[in-house]
Amino acid sequence: MVSNSNKPIEVDFADQLNSLIYYHLENHDSGRHLLQSLEEDTFAKTHIAPIGGMKRSTFFELNSSRGLEQMTHIFSELQKQASGVIQYQYENLGDLIAVDGSLLDAVLSMYWADYRKASKKAKVHVGFNINQGIPTKFHLTDGKKGERHFVDQIVSPGQTAVLDRGYHSHSYFDLWQEKGIHFLCRIKGNTQVTVIEQFKIPQDGIIFYDALVLLGKEGVNQTKRPLRLVGYRILGTEYWVATDRLDISSEDVALIYKLRWDIEKFFKWWKCHLNVYHVLFRSRYGLLIQVLAGLITYLLLAIYCQEEYAERVSVKRFREIRIKIRNEMIESGRHHDILHPT
User: Fold this and answer.
1) Nearest 5 degrees, angle CA 289-CA 292-CA 293?
2) What does the angle CA 238 – CA 205 – CA 262 come to, to the nearest 5 degrees?
3) Does the pLDDT of residue 192 top 90, yes or no?
4) Which pLDDT band holds residue 338 (cuts at 50, 70, 90)?
5) Taken in order 80, 264, 270, 86, is the CA torsion positive or negative?
6) Of 100, 111, 122, 251, which is least surrounded by CB within 10 A?
7) Rounded-to-integer distance, Cα 333 and Cα 89, Å
8) CA distance 81 to 193
9) Nearest to residue 166, comparing CAs of 190, 181, 149, 147?
């Protein structure tokens, strides 16, 4: 491997990936903090850092220009592996993919990102398999980039995109149906509706409306293809959900939209436990590397929790992994003291 300055880099891709996974697992607060651990912690120096250590310039240059293709391949392979070992939780509801975008704060020198509220921002658009609790696909854009455009790039024909009100678009509802992509999307309560057929409402439940409709004003923004509209009420709040799914009950429609919250919990995991939202690299390439490393770390946790405990990712198991790493650090330090007494 050769650096941009034509100097040899004695760090391979395994070292690059291991250091970033270690960064996320140990929740370092900066790249410098990570590099200090790789230099001073006996465990990290022995098991994570490359032979000869990792210089600051090497670390930042490496992750700003190399490894993206390999990272993308590993993410894809781990996603397939996780899909093969984690059972569907709601198999009768079909292949449910929640889609949402999350803003990442960045520094002013990230000229390619969006400027909002005195700081640059980038946005990561993620597909999340609700039935298995794992990320499936993602795209990274500037903060201004709209979200609806990415649904058909993240969700495959036959799958159901589960979406919040930010994805409400009559033209996209038609487009997704044309492409064979199912959808279930909360819409605004004041949307104009033309009823084609009224469906039976279950008694003594939360559902108060279920019909086949056209959305929007005729001749202006009306949907070309009919779709189903379900209205339900929970704790005084009314929810209006549009979908092309006619094969499930109205109660299932309400349940699926409730399950959309799982992607919000996933984003919270990233922020609170894996520290993905602390930006290490300023280039778009480097941020792609960091996001991929965060996704890979989460998938490794998902596979580990499933194979070891037959469970989904949890704070309890994550803490156990951290404790094991720290115990290894202690044992590694003791071993080092025995071999190299002062």
Assistant:
1) 85
2) 60
3) yes
4) very low
5) negative
6) 111
7) 43
8) 44
9) 147
Q: Which CATH architecture has domain 88-268?
A: Alpha-Beta Complex (3.90)
Residue 271 structure tokens = 């922020």
Q: Which long-range contacts (CB under 8 A, 24 or more apart) does 325-331 make?
A: 325/25, 325/26, 325/43, 328/43, 328/47, 329/41, 329/42, 329/43, 329/44
Distance CA 152, CA 133 (A): 20
- The distance from CA 174 to its chain's CA centroid, rounded to whole angstroms, is 26
How is residue 10 written in tokens? 């004695």
Rounded to 5°, angle at Cα 273 from 268 and 277: 65
- Rounded to two decimals, the pTM is 0.88
What the block records as the tokens of 232 is 């339900």
C-alpha span between 210 and 43 (Å, rounded): 60
d(CA 191, CA 210) in angstroms, rounded, equals 15
DSSP-assigned beta bridge partners for residue 127 = 99, 137
Domain ranges in the chain are 13-69+284-339, 88-268
DSSP state at residue 30: S
| Least confident stretch, 13-22, 101-110, 131-140, 266-275 | 101-110
Contact yes or no for 253/234 (Cβ under 8 A): no
Question: For residues 161 and 181, what is the distance between their CA atoms, to the nearest angstrom?
Answer: 7
- Please report, for residues 33, 249, 294, the alpha-carbon distance to residue 56 in angstroms, rounded to integers and kept in the order given: 11, 57, 20
